[in-house]
Each structure stands twice: as structure tokens, then as C-alpha cells.
């Protein structure tokens, strides 16, 4: 039976429309040659936050910055003057750079959607390594604006970055969903740099929950993709997470060899945040091997590098481990100073609470050993509960019920250690 002519025409028109739409989408998501000068792109990719993001993401930001720099040269004014001068290194203060970017967003020139998107993207990349709560909000803005401007890969990246922030903030279900979505879409969109990043992030998350053997699969996949695609930057997240996974599997020789190779690669670079992370990992390897003096030296290096750039998250982590190492060696005054420094750093990023139980339990143990048991029970636990309840009253992500959970985890941590 033949279809009526009108039906055939409708089906033909629909088929052509779908074909054109499919071709347009494929063209939109397929990476194209960048007009950004190679030298400039390499300069931008030397910046560790961009190294972690991957080259196509880095080129997007850098090309925007370079175009805006030309605009500034003509206009002699505008927020992009500061953006274009963001140093391609990690030896400067992150809060100061973020503050400057936020100020730029308030300038009249940032009303231009493309300009605003580029500033937000740079700010989001910095915040991912600094303040997860702020990063989550910024990447939501990036995704919404990128969709409006028909930038189809950037919303995928923004989803993945929101997943990273969610994990740090303790929202593991959302984190898993968003990172896996970004990881899957990166393959559909033919964006191998994003595939490397989100495979790395997923593996790093598995390391955090002690699923070390399972974590090696996505981490090795990310490293392999990066090695077989010369245009992709060094897979730092995967490499550093692999060090921690190998340590968790007690493969100390391989882990320390990878850590030493990473530090050798970083020598002479301004990548202070990366150095801090590798020293932290190597300190843990040395601790597990029983070399506590070497562990103390590495943890101290990590704290110093992190403090230099106001990376409070890393100071919180490395400072807590440094305190434990000092405590093990019987140096209680230095242990107390280190743990106080770690807890103080955590107050600068109060939404990031995953290290609170460990650090407050460590402080309680140290004070108890110094003969101040009452202070240990009162000061250490009450202070953080007060902060949590205070933030809950202001509508923070952390509600009042979490305060009870944190108290339980602190007491459980102390019980586990027999104090």
C-alpha cells in the first residue's frame, strides 16, 4: 500500500531536518583547529589548573584571554586587563586572584556574555582547587551561560566540575552522577582531554573511599589516553591518585618511584600546588614504611607550599598528618602547633568538612597526652559543633543533623584509636 503524497513529503522533510540537525551537532562538538597562537596556548597550559583541565579547555580560556587582551590594548580599560595578566603559575595567592576576577565581573565590560563566560570559567577552574562551595556555584553559572551561547562542550565540563565540588562537600551521590555523566559525554563529544580528566577524577574518588585496586582501572585508562594523544597535557590527577592507590595496596616501591619522578618533573617550575600534593603523598608512603622523620619532612614541605599560595584545603590535610607524625615521635608541642594550623585553615573553607573528624580527634589526643583532658573534650568538639550549627542557621549545605553526625564520627575515630 502506497503512502499518500502528503505523508511522504512530511516524512522526507522530517528526515532531512534530523539529518541537518545531527550534522550541526556533530560539527559543534567536534574539536576544530584553534586560531590561538601555539606559544600562547603552551604558556596557558603550563598553569597547573589548566593542565588538569586538559588542552582543549585550556585553549578555550587562553584564546579568550588573548582576544580580550587585544581588546584592552585598543580600549585601554576593562576587566580583561587583569584576567590577561593572571600568572601561569601557582606561586601567587589564590584568594587574591579570585578576588580580582570577582571584581572584574562587576565591571561594565563584563556585561558582554562571551567576556563574562571566560572570566567565570577561569574563576571556576581556580575555585575547584580552592573552595568547593564557591566552585559549585560558579560552574552552575558557567553551564547556564555556555548553553545560552551555544558552546556545547563547556556545559559538559561544567557538569563534571560540579561533580568534583559535590564530592568534596560530601554529596557523593550527586558527585558520582555528575562525573560519570561528564565522562560519558566527553566520549560522545570526542573530547579526549575531558575523558582523561573525568576518568582521573572518578579514579581519585575511588582512592578516597579506599577502593584502591578498582581505582587503578580508570586511572591507568586516563594515563594511557594522555600518553597516546600528544596534544593532551600531563595527566596530573591520574598520576597523583595512582601514587595514593599504590600506597593503599602496599606497593611502596612503585609508589615512591612514581612520586620521585613527579617531583623531578616539577623541579624548577612554579607549580607549588602540585609540589604540595606530591610531597603529601610521599609523606604518607614514608609513614607507611615506618620512616617517620622522612614523613615529617615531606608533610612540612606540603604545608609550606600550600601556605604560600593560601591553599587552605591542602594545609588542612597535610597539617593534620604532620601533627600525627609529630605525635608519633613524641613531639607534642610541634604536634599541637601543626594541628592548630590545620584546624585554623579549615575555618577558611568551612563547608569542606570531610577532614574535621580526623583533625579534631587528633587534637583531642594531643591535648589529652599533654594533660588537658577536659580541654580536649570541651574545646575540640564543642568548637566545631558551634560552627556547624551557626552555618546551618544561615542555610548552609551542612544542616544541623550533620553536627550530630560529625560528633559521632569524632568519638568513633577516638574509639578506633583507643583514646
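^ C-alpha cells above, recovered residues below v
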Amino acid at each position: 500500500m502506497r503512502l499518500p503524497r502528503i505523508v511522504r513529503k512530511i516524512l522526507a522533510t522530517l528526515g532531512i531536518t534530523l539529518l541537518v540537525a545531527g550534522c550541526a551537532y556533530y560539527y559543534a562538538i567536534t574539536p576544530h583547529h584553534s586560531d590561538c597562537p601555539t606559544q600562547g596556548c603552551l604558556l596557558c597550559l603550563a598553569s597547573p589548573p589548566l593542565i588538569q583541565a586538559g588542552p582543549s579547555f585550556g585553549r578555550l580560556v587562553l584564546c579568550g584571554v588573548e582576544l580580550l587582551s587585544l581588546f584592552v590594548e585598543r580600549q585601554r580599560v576593562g576587566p580583561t586587563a587583569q584576567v590577561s595578566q593572571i600568572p601561569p603559575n601557582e606561586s601567587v595567592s589564590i584568594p587574591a586572584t579570585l578576588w580580582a576576577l570577582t571584581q572584574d565581573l562587576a565591571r561594565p565590560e563584563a556585561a558582554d556574555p562571551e567576556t563574562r563566560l571566560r572570566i567565570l570559567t577561569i574563576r571556576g577552574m581556580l575555585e575547584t582547587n580552592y573552595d568547593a562551595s564557591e566552585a559549585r556555584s560558579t560552574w552552575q553559572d558557567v553551564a547556564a551561560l555556555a548553553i545560552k551561547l551555544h558552546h556545547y562542550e563547556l556545559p559538559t565540563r561544567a557538569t563534571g566540575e560540579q561533580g568534583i565540588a559535590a564530592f568534596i562537600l560530601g554529596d557523593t551521590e550527586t558527585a558520582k552522577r555528575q562525573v560519570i555523566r561528564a565522562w560519558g559525554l566527553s566520549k560522545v563529544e570526542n573530547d579526549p582531554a575531558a575523558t582523561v580528566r573525568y576518568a582521573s577524577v572518578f579514579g581519585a574518588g575511588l582512592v578516597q573511599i579506599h577502593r584502591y585496586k578498582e581505582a587503578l582501572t580508570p586511572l591507568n585508562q586516563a594515563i594511557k589516553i594522555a600518553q597516546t594523544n600528544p596534544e593532551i597535557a600531563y595527566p596530573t590527577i591520574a598520576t597523583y591518585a595512582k601514587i595514593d592507590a599504590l600506597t593503599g595496596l602496599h606497593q611502596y616501591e612503585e609508589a615512591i618511584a612514581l612520586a620521585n619522578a613527579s617531583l623531578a618533573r616539577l623541579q624548577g617550575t612554579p607549580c607549588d600546588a602540585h609540589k604540595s600534593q606530591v610531597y603529601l603523598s610521599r609523606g604518607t608512603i614514608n609513614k607507611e614504611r615506618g620512616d617517620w622523620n622522612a614523613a615529617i619532612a615531606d608533610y612540612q614541605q606540603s604545608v609550606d607550599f600550600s601556605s604560600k599560595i593560601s591553599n587552605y584545603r591542602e594545609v588542612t590535610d597535610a597539617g593534620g598528618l604532620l601533627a600525627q607524625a609529630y605525635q608519633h615521635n613524641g613531639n607534642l608541642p610541634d604536634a599541637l602547633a601543626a594541628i592548630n594550623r590545620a584546624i585554623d585553615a579549615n575555618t577558611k573553607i568551612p563547608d569542606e568538612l570531610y577532614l574535621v573528624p580526623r583533625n579534631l580527634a587528633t587534637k583531642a589526643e594531643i591535648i589529652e597526652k599533654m594533660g588537658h583532658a577536659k580541654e580536649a573534650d570541651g574545646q575540640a568538639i564543642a568548637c566545631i559543633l558551634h560552627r556547624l550549627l551557626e552555618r546551618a542557621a544561615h542555610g548552609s549545605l551542612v544542616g544541623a543533623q550533620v553536627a550530630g553526625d560529625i560528633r559521632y564520627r569524632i568519638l568513633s575515630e577516638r574509639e578506633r584509636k583507643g583514646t
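Residues 24-89, 392-403 have pLDDT under 50 and may be disordered.
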